[in-house]
Design brief:
Layout: E1 5-9, H1 16-27, E2 30-33, H2 34-48, E3 66-69, E4 72-75, E5 78-79, H3 87-97, H4 100-116, E6 119-123, H5 126-130, E7 136-141, H6 144-157, H7 164-180, E8 193-196, H8 202-217
Parallel strand pairs: 1-6, 1-7, 2-6, 7-8
Antiparallel strand pairs: 3-4, 4-5
Helix pairs in contact: 1-8, 2-3, 2-4, 3-7, 6-7
The structure holds 2'-deoxycytidine-5'-monophosphate.
Length: 229
């Protein structure tokens, strides 16, 4: 049976995970937050006290279990939904995600999940590397100020400490590392639909993508057609 996939890529704070979650629920698909997997690898590396700059230290990933249950990531059986959002993990994750040894391990897990389930997957390299044959690819972005503001509000809503200026600086730093790294950098796939969400309501963005996606998967329009109008 052919599996369906919706790929959503873009920089931190563009609204990817909110939209991806809404769409997965509406479509009855599995939501896979690939950023959570890079965060979990970082969390475990910090716990093991390995040198994060040394790609050879990440052999432990071969014996690491990462499983999603109801959109929550379990790392070796432990619910790490909260711990992977800590400042320590957020600061270090881009370095960890730049190692090809790490990426190869995690991409293999992501592709295996998509072979066995219909998925909405969000990240940085889903349309370009992980699921090049996805039914629809979205590249979602927003101004850095707006992205920082959204992350700040999300932190406050979840009872976490938050400093808007610090968040913006961290987002800028991560964008720079994520988009200039050698392996699988953050990049719009050639056949992805570009969406700037700076001035858009997130719910409206999800509705727009839903219409595009269901048209494609019901065979109404052909993949690769220009969806921008
Ligand atoms: O989306 P996020 O902020 O939780 O992602 C955390 C980090 O993981 C981000 O700085 C880049 C990296 N990442 C990646 O390199 N590839 C992905 N597919 C997803 C995330």
């Amino acid at each position: 049976m052919k599996r369906h996939a919706l790929a959503i890529d873009g920089p931190a704070g563009a609204g990817k995970s909110t939209v991806a979650k809404m769409l997965a629920e509406r479509l009855g698909y599995v939501y896979i937050d690939t950023g959570a997997m890079y965060r979990a690898a970082t969390y475990k590396a910090l716990k093991l006290r390995i040198d994060l700059n040394d790609p050879d230290g990440f052999g432990f990933l071969a014996d690491t279990d990462m499983t999603f249950v109801d959109s929550i990531l379990y790392l070796d059986g432990e619910n790490v939904g909260q711990s992977i959002r800590s400042a320590a993990v957020t600061t270090s994750v881009s370095i960890v995600a730049s190692h090809i040894q790490v990426r190869n391990q995690l991409v293999a897990i992501q592709q295996e999940i998509a072979r066995n389930a219909d998925v909405v997957m969000d990240g940085r390299d889903i349309g370009t590397v992980v699921l090049p044959d996805a039914d629809l690819k979205i590249y979602m972005t927003a101004t850095v100020e707006e992205r920082a503001r959204r992350r700040h509000e999300e932190n406050l809503a979840n009872g976490r400490d938050s400093d808007l200026l610090k968040i913006q600086k961290d987002i800028e730093r991560r964008d720079r590392i994520d988009s200039t790294r050698i392996y699988n950098p953050l990049k719009q796939a050639e056949d992805a639909v570009y969406l700037d969400t700076s001035h858009l309501d997130i719910k409206a963005v999800a509705d727009t993508i839903y219409v595009m996606f269901t048209k494609i998967t019901s065979g109404d329009i052909v993949k690769g057609e220009n969806h921008n109008g």
